[in-house]
Amino acid sequence: MQVIGIDIGFGFTKIISGSNYLMFKSVIGDALEVQFKDQFVAAQDQESFFQVDLNGRSYFVGSIAEQQSSTRHYTMDQERFVAKFAQPLALAALARMANGADPIKIVTGLPIRYLQKQKKIMRKLLSGRHTLLCTDQNESEREVILDIDDVRVIPQPFGSVFGLLLNDHGGGADTRLLKQKVGVIDIGFCTTDYTISDRTRYIERGSATSEMGIAKAFRRIADELNDKCRVDIELFRLYEAVHHGSIRIFGKSIDITELTNNAFQSLAADIANEIQELWADEWDLDSVLITGGGGAVLAPYLESLLAGEINAIGGNDDARLNNVLGYWRYGKNQWDRTSANSSDS
Ligand SMILES: Nc1ncnc2c1ncn2[C@@H]1O[C@H](COP(=O)(O)OP(=O)(O)OP(=O)(O)O)[C@@H](O)[C@H]1O
Ligand SMILES: [Mg+2]
Fold it and tell me: Which atom of ligand 1 is nearest to the CA of 23?
């Protein structure tokens, strides 16, 4: 049995099994048949070269799709995301991560608003036996058979709660969460999820999904760049520019630090307003946790706008992995315990 955590986010797909992890942009594209394939493939490192054949289609996945596919697909619509993207992204990641033919048990998540509606669909898309053909950069092909015999789907921000609560063996870690009522804000690329963990129990009141993801700030930056330079920039191409504070368009470097600052400040203010409304009755929260890749970016802007004890999870680690780490630890906790109990009896 292999336990694997997978977080299929609008921005990035993240997968963890033990100490191995992998993360790539949630972009898929049609794999190319081009004559200069050797040259462009040589420029890619093995990690970022990702080609899989699945259900009769050949896909590039992640950064190679962004750079090379002429038809690229990404979406910001949840229904379409689950219907068209979740399976190829998850199976491509699993094909890299799975170790041999052992049956696989998966923990994954959905935004809170879609949990009830899409839980069954997600289970169905991932469960069962899947055959993929993976091509590496040297064009050698490898058939991978994935035998997925169990899929658990939990509210996405609870991944971060389990990540703190459990250790790598699925046992107890941060015992404060066992006693406290904690608000969790998970800021992702497209969505922000709010939830409450009351002594680790999920509280429906005070839990919601909003569209206040980092993409909202990126949209504002892209619109202003469009006004200035007349280019339509796909949002997922802005990560590096925002990180470096500048973007090169038609050979000219444009400083976007102020633009980014304003966009993040305004997004943080919108999120703080939503929280004030949603958690108006939750004045007894012991603390608030900020998580998700967008959480790491927005925490400095949010901290001064929120009341009470605020903790950004992740420290120096990559906060995009907070949820998926918890998915995997939760899986270890659930299934290792079950198999230990059944071998005892
Ligand atoms: N090293 C990094 N590279 C790229 N983005 C980063 C990095 N560190 C933090 N980020 C931020 O992380 C965000 C993505 O976070 P995360 O992976 O949690 O989102 P997601 O789960 O894919 O999206 P959603 O929850 O909306 O489905 C990006 O929008 C970016 O602002
Ligand atoms: Mg997310």
Answer: 17
Going along the chain from its start, the domains and CATH numbers come out as: 2-160+323-344 (3.30.420.40), 175-213+267-315 (3.30.420.40), 215-259 (no CATH)
301 within ligand 1 shell (Cβ under 6 A): no
The pLDDT tens digits of the residues spanning 165-211 come to 998 887 777 788 899 999 999 999 999 999 999 999 999 999 999 99
Contact 50, 64 (CB under 8 A): yes
Tokens representing residue 174 in the block = 């941060």
Provide the terminal-to-terminal Cα distance of the chain, rounded to the nearest Å: 19
Pick from 114, 239, 290 the residue to mutate for probing ligand 1's pocket: most ligand atoms within 8 Å of its CB: 239
Residue 345 pLDDT grade (very low, low, confident, very high; cuts 50, 70, 90): very low
Beta bridge partners of 146: 130
The rounded distance, in Å, linking the Cα atoms of 7 and 158 is 12
Is pTM beyond 0.85 here?
yes
* pLDDT tens-digit series, residues 9-49: 999 999 999 999 999 999 888 887 644 555 555 555 555 67
Distance of CA 320 from the midpoint of ligand 2 (Å) = 7
User: Which protein residue's CA is at the shortest distance from atom 6 of ligand 1?
Assistant: 293
Kindly tell me if the per-residue pLDDT of 122 is higher than 70: yes
